[in-house]
Fold this sequence. Notes:
Mean pLDDT: 95
Order of helices and strands: EHEHHE
Shape: rod-shaped
Oligomer: single chain
Distance between the termini: 12 Å
Largest sheet: 3 strands, mixed
Amino acid sequence: MYYGADLVDGYRRAATYVDKILKGAKPADLPVEQPQKFEFVINLKTAKQIGLTIPPEVLARANKVIK
């Protein structure tokens, strides 16, 4: 299982920082931001290989399930 920042969203937000810097903003003046979007991924294939059973309630909450 993985619960953490959505990497694709992080790359998009990094691109906005690059855009601001290329347009003349000073990097020191830009605020530090926390991740805004998170994802929950479950790898069922690995869970089955190690003998874990994931309850349906947990699977229903996952953003992505790897089969």
